[in-house]
């Protein structure tokens, strides 16, 4: 495939911070979507004002939740709504934050189903352009965004990944000992420094080992993708973002590298959230271009 665009943004010296406005230009609502055997918690964020709006499904990464690291998805959803007039829905996968579902229910297939359910929910909301739905994901959320768009290209018109990881085996996300434990017990315990440990299913392990994410994406999806990564990401090799765009046949597809940014977009090291807002602005401009503007 052809790599169409590569951009590099220098993060050093940036003084840009959160975009706070004097008046609220969007409204949020917590909702729950009935899945097969569990409830899917979600938050929708819709711009105020007249017209109809595009919308984006936001998928979180491993061990995280719908608000993501440093509340990055809260900032993103608010900026998408207020600045770019794009609605969003962000969800908690099983076992995350407000989800009461067992974490072992999570698999690649179930996560794609959750993403589709979220897209269908928000596309049915008032003021949403049902034919202008995008999808984005951070880390493993990007893995699922790629699979969802490859399997449902009729639903998702544009894709963005933040530190996307189509090859989680290359990340070393679980060990041989973990897989042995999952084979014997049906799950293994995944530990985190920032939250309680999570039961992780054998099915998920097998998904990670056997799913050809980029093949499914390349063969099923013809829309544009923007893959954003930081040059200092030591969790997911930034090369994976280049691989994502290389798998695309769309001339609007683009890779964006931000100098000095880590896997969590420097949300824990930059008080002004400079890198995060560069990523959000790049994302907002891309979705505005590929999903279209508001209809009065």
Explain what the structure shows:
By secondary structure, the protein is α/β, with parallel strands linked by helices. The chain has a single domain (6-170, 213-291), classed as Alpha/Beta hydrolase fold, catalytic domain (Rossmann fold, 3-Layer(aba) Sandwich), CATH 3.40.50. Helix content is 32%, strand content 24%. It has nine helices and eleven strands. The protein has helices spanning 72-82, 108-123, 140-151, 168-171, 176-185, 202-210, 213-220, 239-246, 274-291, and strands at 6-10, 26-34, 39-47, 53-59, 87-91, 128-138, 158-162, 187-190, 198-201, 225-230, 254-259. The strands form two sheets. The chain has a nine-stranded mixed β-sheet, with helices on both faces. It has a two-stranded antiparallel ribbon with strand order 8-9. Strand 4 (53-59), helix 1 and strand 5 form a beta-alpha-beta unit. Helix 2 crosses helix 3 (140-151) and helix 3 (140-151) packs parallel to helix 7. The protein is globular and about 55 Å long. The mean pLDDT is 93.
Low-pLDDT ranges: none
Summarize the biggest pleated sheet.
9 strands, mixed
* Number of helical stretches of at least 4 residues: 9
**How helix-rich are the residues, as a percent range?**
25-40%
* Coarse structural class: alpha/beta
Tell me the overall shape.
globular
Summarize the helix and strand pattern as letters: EEEEHEHEHEHHEEHHEHEH
Number of domains: 1
CATH topology call: Rossmann fold
Which homologous superfamily in CATH is the superfamily?
Alpha/Beta hydrolase fold, catalytic domain
CATH class value? Alpha Beta
Arrangement of strands in the largest sheet? 1-11-10-7-6-4-5-3-2
Number of strands: 11
**N-to-C CA distance:** 38 Å
**CATH architectural name:** 3-Layer(aba) Sandwich
C-alpha-based Rg, rounded? 18 Å
Quote the average pLDDT.
93
Percentage beta strand = 15-25%
């Amino acid at each position: 495939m052809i790599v169409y665009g590569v951009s590099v943004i220098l993060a050093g010296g940036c003084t840009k911070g959160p975009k706070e406005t004097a008046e609220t230009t969007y409204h949020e609502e917590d909702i729950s979507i009935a899945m097969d055997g569990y409830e899917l918690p979600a938050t929708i964020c819709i711009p105020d004002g007249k017209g109809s709006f595009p919308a984006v499904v936001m998928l979180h990464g491993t061990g995280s939740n719908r608000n993501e690291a440093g509340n990055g998805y809260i900032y993103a959803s608010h900026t998408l709504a207020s600045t770019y007039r794009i609605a969003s829905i962000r969800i908690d996968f099983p076992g995350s934050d407000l989800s009461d579902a067992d974490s072992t229910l999570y698999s690649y297939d179930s996560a794609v189903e959750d993403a589709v359910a979220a897209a269908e929910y928000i596309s049915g909301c008032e003021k949403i352009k049902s034919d202008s739905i995008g999808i984005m994901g951070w880390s493993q959320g990007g893995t699922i965004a790629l699979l969802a768009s490859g399997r449902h290209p009729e639903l998702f018109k544009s894709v963005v990944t933040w530190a996307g990881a189509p090859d989680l085996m290359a990340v070393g996300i679980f060990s041989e000992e973990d897989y042995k434990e999952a084979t014997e017990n049906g799950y293994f315990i995944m530990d985190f420094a920032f939250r309680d440990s999570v039961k992780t299913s054998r099915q998920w392990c097998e998904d990670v080992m056997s799913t050809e994410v980029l093949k499914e994406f390349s063969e099923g999806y013809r829309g544009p993708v923007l893959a954003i990564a930081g040059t200092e990401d030591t969790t997911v090799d930034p090369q994976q973002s280049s691989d994502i765009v290389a798998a695309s046949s769309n001339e609007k597809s683009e890779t964006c590298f931000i100098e000095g940014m880590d896997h969590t977009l420097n949300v824990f090291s930059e008080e002004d959230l400079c890198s995060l807002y560069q990523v959000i602005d790049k994302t907002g401009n891309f979705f505005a271009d590929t999903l279209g503007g508001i209809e009065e």
